[in-house]
Amino acid sequence: MGSISKPRPLDNQATTTSIASTTTIDNNDYHDRAAALSNMIRQDLIFMKKAMAEVQKYADQMNLRIKKTCEKFEELETRGGSERELGKLKKTVKKFKSQIPSKFRIHYADSEQRPNPWLDGSINRSSNQIHANNKADDHDNISQSLREGPKFEQTTAFEQFKISFLGLNSTLRVCLLCFLRFPEMVAIKKKLMIHWWIGEELLSPIPMDQKTGLLLRKTAEDLGNEFMDELIAKGFIEPIYKNCSLVVDCCRMWPHILSALTIVAERFVFRPICPPSFAQYYENRCLLNISEAIIDDMLEKFSEVNRLKILYLGRWQSSATHHIEVADNKILHGLKNMNQLRFLSLRGISMITMLPSFILQLTNLKILDLIACHNLEVVPDGIGLLKSMTHLDMSECYFLDHMPKTLGSLLQLEVLKGFVIGQSTDKKSCTIHDLIKLSKIRKLSIYTSSKEFPTNKQVCGLQRLKALQKLKISWSGCISQGETDDTPMQVRAQVQGHTTNLRRLPTSYWSDDPKFPCSMQKLVLECFPMMIISSSLLPANLKQLYIRGGQLSDLGPIASTTVNKLRLKYLSKLEMHWTEFRTLFPNLIYLEKVECPTLANFPCDENGVWMNNSQGFM
């Protein structure tokens, strides 16, 4: 045993001064930390009270809808409803059922015995056969005893699952195994899984067909969507549609499939080796925050793990009610040595005011997810050093008032969301013109406080983004009822006096030339500040148009024969009859109308949806 040296005597006065100073510092630190914790608790309690009020409101609305659906069902049973009527009602019931929290659905499903779709081989059928012969409800009816029984591996169901799993190509198997990171029966964003696969380098762009030599220009995301479709079609995962959308928004895996996949995964050494609040997998390559609400020292424990490719600290849950925060910005210093990172998500984490400068050393980073970092005030000026980045999402970062000019140096960038165009006159702020070198940009979302946006010069800049397919523009400071409308007087007078003649108004207030790039297929306008829209905002080949909120009162100038999907939400001033509307959009397949009270005689269902069945679905 080693000896302990005797301490040297200290000067009494110096000791007293040192102790007093240390005590003062410790007390100050204590009070600061206590005040910070008190503030966090207070904020959380306020948040929970508000959230529960919304939950109660939502429950009341759901009860009313379910009651009406029950009445409709009784009426159909009484008079003998047609197959079409019952099929339509079935879709409504399925939608309501999908909105019930998963733990209650599991409890109900486990309490009843129903057929197992794996037993009849339906997992190997085509997508159409699955939907025609096996209702999606079948998946939630697997008994708990089958999933947890000691002889589960010897059952026919498990053998058929194993055959189906081994029938996938090797890449698709690994993609499916990624679902083991998540709890059973939770809704997982499809986009999250695709980004995860990109981070794991399971997806790469396919510029051309190797056999035929034909140009495909298939992006990693395109390939990810194909993989997801195949996993859905073969029954491994179930799709979840947002509201009445025709596009899959989330997905989930049923407990019996997750159980079988867990057993099969053992040969891939794909088992969690971390505390339940975090999930970490094989060779420290991936780290996912499962349930931690406050990130304190957890990241420091992994700061020396320089093999991490994926670090998902933020909110992965589809609901925004899951709150996460950092106790201190210094926690992010744990990122310092993670130079192999390809996917970093800080989504929804509060109290992050700025990103550490050493994040610019993560030169392998492809995807940076900063969605809903509400306290984020600054994006580093040197972000242009991240030359490998393909996806940067800063949506809902409302404290950002400008963008660093070096964004224009990210030549591999394909997706840029939350791009801010403010009132800043700083020459270091990035403008639309600074983005023109980004030849690979496919998706762009812009947040602006300028009602004059876009000017002719800005439209010219956007026109040079030749690969742009989807554009979203959100204007801040929407005019609410009772506020002043800044629409020019001559336009306002004509609107008030001759609302029905707006379709013949000259559009000299905007220029028809230049136009948005013809490659654009989807345009989203939020809180549009004017009463009419220039036709220059409608690209020649536009397929999807979404308008949400704002002062719009007329659709005439943007009549289109190419638009087949249209969403109109919260447009209290938009006035039009159905027959007139159909002449403006003759090839429309899907319409969603929400809280547009002056759109008359629109044949939408109770969800505000109309679909042109004669032309098929998108």
UniProtKB/TrEMBL annotation:
Disease resistance R13L4/SHOC-2-like LRR domain sequence ranges: 291-507
Disordered, as annotated region: 117-144
Classification via InterPro entries: LRR_dom_sf, LRR_R13L4/SHOC2-like
Keywords assigned: Repeat
Biased composition (Polar residues): 123-132
Cross-referenced SUPFAM superfamilies: RNI-like
Domain of life: Eukaryota
Stretch forming the signal peptide: none
Record's keyword annotation contains Repeat: yes
Coiled-coil portions: none
Name under which the protein is recorded: Disease resistance R13L4/SHOC-2-like LRR domain-containing protein
Organism for this UniProt entry: Camellia sinensis var. sinensis
